[in-house]
Design a protein that fits this description.
Blueprint: E1 6-14, E2 22-23, E3 25-29, E4 32-37, H1 39-43, E5 51-62, E6 64-69, H2 71-80, E7 82-83, H3 90-101, E8 110-115, H4 120-123, H5 126-135, E9 141-145, E10 150-153, H6 155-161, E11 173-177, E12 184-190, H7 194-204, H8 208-224, E13 227-235, H9 237-248, E14 255-261, H10 274-277, E15 288-296, H11 330-341, E16 346-351, H12 354-369, E17 377-381, H13 387-390, H14 392-395, E18 398-402, H15 411-417, H16 429-435, E19 439-441, H17 453-462, H18 482-488, H19 491-497, E20 514-517, E21 534-539, E22 542-546
Parallel strand pairs: 1-5, 6-13, 7-8, 8-9, 13-14, 14-15, 15-16, 16-17, 17-18, 18-19
Antiparallel strand pairs: 1-2, 1-3, 3-4, 5-20, 9-10, 10-12, 11-12, 20-21, 21-22
Helix pairs in contact: 2-8, 3-5, 6-7, 8-9, 11-12, 17-18
């Protein structure tokens, strides 16, 4: 073994490797972990040129992993858009638009996010459109909701998108209309948002450099939370082009797995499906693996578009028997998964309702029966899984991508409770783990306002809001241990993504991706886990973040 470049001693190292769970020191050479052990044996490896760091007893963990985010979307929002919390009231959003618009030119757009699902009724009224018109001084306004499936557009934005009184609802989408006049209120659901997305794209004239900046900014933010690997859950050529450009310039300091769009659902002006799959190798690089496809199999419960086995709570529009539908017929999904599996592509399948989960598992069963055992499958979100289907995750080798952080009370769970009687039984994580299901943690950032994994980890342990914003607990019987939660955001996510060969645990031979923490989460009360901060984040033996 060559002399290490870096030696870390006097640390509390949680390796998240169950065969070698603890150490007090580690050595790094050429960006990889070359030794783990006690201080004396690791210090003895150091040479004259080795950097030796005595951490004074500080805790160290592997670089954290986010199995589900939309990183470039989040980076763009941070750099270029109006931001407000999902907890903001309608009047607060109006005033935020007003203040933001005052600093814009007369033809610039107000683009912002993310209003809470509890405000859908407010944005469903024609008065909302009129108030936004006034607040923005006539400028176009496009606001995204917290699910990022729905948008609000004011009068100028609707006109730019070509949406008027006579515009029909698209397949898998809805233009919300005033019940008396029939004119659009401005609230657009699911695929009805695409003309507005198209209009926004035309107004911004996004460049490759803008995409690169947004990607780089998002990764910078992820580093500040100790995240060194992630899966982009809906990758386009623009997103993958930005990742490739960063890696070619030696500036992609993360392991990234991309999920290629299977359809144009919720996206405009970009290749998808077979056209995108055919181009995937253009974007493969040292740290970027375009190895998954993404299927959006249903919508989201607050807008009655999640696909369930049992009806939603009755309302005037949907009646007492509405269950929602999948975006693809079972035979179509099966055909797509068989076709992509034959090309070695894994799949992340968005399922917010238990009917969508069952359709996905049935299709995966056909893929496995056809002999495709090497590809990976993730059920993304999976808040609702019928008891009869939970063990099928194990028999079919399917991972549970649990995202966003909906396993404790909050705005989105409250919105789901308004439409579903089973809302208090979301995320059966304890049961899934006990069955042997691989549970991997994700933020769905920017659906989760922050990608901070410690919010998700504490919530998994307590089933309570780690920030104290919402009272009570959500199905506390499904709480898991701290080690299980940490594994969900490290080694489990690495396995689910197919990067466990290089990251996910501090193991000899793997990339030296690690985080020096402000406190040992295993040494504090459960309600203080969320106070854990990244002091330093290291990727491939290089420090990429240091807390000021």
């Amino acid at each position: 073994m060559r002399t290490p470049d870096l030696v870390i001693v006097n640390a509390v190292v949680h390796t998240v490797d169950r065969e070698n769970p603890r150490a007090s020191a580690l050595a790094v050479s050429d960006g990889r972990v070359v030794a783990l052990g006690d201080d004396a044996e690791i210090r003895a490896l150091a040479g004259a040129e080795t950097q030796v760091r005595d951490l004074g007893g500080a805790p160290v963990i592997p670089g954290l992993i986010d199995v589900h985010n939309h990183h470039l979307m989040a980076g763009e929002a941070d750099l270029f858009q109006l931001g407000f919390a999902p907890t903001a009231g309608f009047d607060d959003v109006v005033e935020a638009v007003r203040a933001y618009a005052e600093n814009l030119g007369p033809d610039e757009w107000v683009i912002g996010e993310a209003f809470g699902s509890l405000l859908l009724d407010d944005f469903s009224r024609i008065e909302a459109r009129r108030r936004m018109d006034e607040a923005a001084g006539g400028r176009p306004v496009v606001l995204t909701d917290d699910s990022h499936h729905n948008r609000f557009a004011n009068t100028a934005a609707l006109q730019a998108a070509g949406i008027g009184d006579d515009t029909p609802d698209p397949d898998q989408g809805r233009i919300v209309r005033d019940p008396e006049t029939g004119e659009p209120t401005g609230l657009l659901m699911e695929s009805a948002t695409i003309p507005v997305i198209d209009a926004v794209d035309r107004s911004l004239q996004r460049t490759a450099e803008r995409y690169r900046r947004a990607s780089a900014r998002a990764i910078e933010i992820l580093h500040s939370y100790g995240i060194t690997a992630f899966q982009d859950a809906a990758a386009t050529v623009e997103i993958m082009g930005a990742l490739r450009a960063l890696d070619e310039d030696g500036e992609l300091h993360a392991w990234v797995v991309s999920s290629l769009l299977s359809s144009g659902f919720l996206f405009a002006n970009t290749p998808f499906g077979d056209e995108l799959v055919a181009r995937r190798e253009e974007f493969r690089s040292a740290h970027h693996r375009p190895d998954f496809v993404k299927v959006a199999l249903d919508g989201v419960p607050p807008t009655y578009t999640g696909a369930f086995l049992t009806p939603y709570l009755p309302d005037e529009e949907h009646g007492p028997h509405h269950c929602g539908v999948t975006t693809m017929q079972p035979a179509e999904l099966e055909s797509w998964l068989l076709r992509t599996a034959a090309q070695g592509l894994s799949a992340k399948i968005h399922c917010t309702g238990d009917a969508a989960v069952r359709v996905a598992l049935d299709a995966i069963a056909s893929v496995r029966a056809a002999g495709h055992t090497e590809v990976k499958y993730q059920i993304a979100h999976g808040q609702f899984v019928h008891p009869d289907d939970r063990a099928r995750f194990v028999t079919l080798d399917v991972s549970a991508d649990i995202s966003p952080f909906l396993w404790f009370p909050g705005v989105i769970p409250d919105a789901i409770a308004q439409v579903r009687s089973d809302a208090m039984h979301m995320h059966p994580n304890r049961e899934l783990i006990d069955m042997g299901v691989l549970v991997a943690g994700g933020s769905d950032w920017p659906v989760s306002v922050s990608p901070d994994p410690w919010e998700g980890i504490q919530g998994l342990v307590t089933r309570e809001d780690p920030l104290g914003r919402a009272p009570g607990a959500l199905w506390p019987e499904q709480a898991i241990s701290l080690l299980e939660a940490l594994e969900a955001f490290s080694i489990n996510a690495a396995v689910a993504m197919g990067v466990d060969d290089v990251t996910g645990s501090l193991t000899v031979g793997k990339s030296a991706d690690f985080v020096i923490l402000s406190q040992d989460p295993f040494a504090v009360p459960a309600d203080r886990i969320v106070d854990t901060r990244a002091v330093e984040t290291w990727f491939a033996g290089r420090r990429v973040y240091s807390r000021g």
